[in-house]
Design brief:
Length: about 150
Amino acid sequence: MTRVPPGAMMKIFRGLRNELQKHKLTPADIMPVAGIDPGTLEDRFTGPAWEGSVIAKTGTLVRTDGGASSLVGQMKTARGDVLLFVIMNQRGGVLRFRQNQDRLVMQVQNSRGGPKSFGYKPRVLAMKLADTQSISTSANEFEPNSKTGASPP
């Protein structure tokens, strides 16, 4: 099985940030904000000072590699620094890995004056679904209904 090394994951995350900027979006628009958004980061970084200071994606494999957990994202410090990070752990308890990930992020933030919220406010993005028919679509491109034999218009 191929594994994504931390350096490659950082390149992916940087590329994602660059692509989002082109569309006037930020990682908070598509990734969970710790302590605020529902999901695996909802109950992490929840103190008043920490809430909203970490935007990240988790990854968990309970059985593979004897237990594996990752946290990839960005944190903000009281000095205004936005620091990108990739933390990957394997061969151990997933819950302990998560505690260690949180502790490491908090230590880095504390070493730079403490955490600072990104000022995240949830935003609903408009989503346009692709049309199922277009000018070039013809009736013979659809599967006939197996019960009636009819094709969509």
